[in-house]
Amino acid sequence: MLYNMIKFFERLAVKIKLFDYLYSQFGRSLVEREIKAACINSFDNVLHIGCGSLPYTAKIIVEKTGARVTAIDCDKVSVKDAERYIIENNLVLGIKAEQANGIDYSVSEFDVIIVSHGVKPKELILKAIFLSMKDGSKMIYRNPKGFLARFYNNEYILLNTKHIRRIRQKRITVRESILIEKR
Predict the structure, then answer these.
(1) H helix or E strand, kind and range, residue 95
(2) DSSP H helical segments within 39-164, as ranges?
């Protein structure tokens, strides 16, 4: 039910500029903290898994860094909405949207991979990414807080890596972002 409410609001935001503005402002500081922690720059190739209808994470990364972003989602309608949003907001040169799932999507060409907190099955996706991402690349995933932690899998620290950084978030829905660098 919560997942459907979020999808509904995102679809409204694609069509109504006020909702788009409010939604992207709501998440702006979270993404900015992630950009800073991961040192994302214009040379990076970024993958965002779970972009939904409103690819605001990708949009903010492109605006702040000039990096190239591929935004994927497993929901066909969400990807169509995201493509429309990208075109209407002149983001075609920076963002590409694709329908795909995070478990078997090839991540080896990406420097930074960001996983939204609503992706499912989160644990399998995180493990698949970590095992196939290239050395030196970084993965960020978001842990929800409060009542949302009951709806989403709460926390996964991955496989034998000591290169973990927790990024505290000042957001009502996200407790922290976890940054892992594969070495």
Answers:
(1) strand 95-99
(2) 56-65, 76-88, 122-132, 148-151
State the pTM of this model.
0.86
Write out pLDDT tens, residues 127-144: 899 899 999 999 998 876
First-to-last alpha carbon distance for the chain, in angstroms, is 39
Q: Which residues contact 53 (CB under 8 A, 6 or more apart)?
A: 7, 10, 11, 13, 14, 77, 78, 81, 82, 85
113 forms bridges with which residues in the sheet? 47, 139
CA distance 112 to 115: 10
- Full set of structural domains in the chain with CATH: 2-181 (3.40.50.150)
**What pLDDT digit, counting tens, does each position of 39-82 carry?**
999 999 999 999 999 899 999 999 999 999 999 999 999 999 99
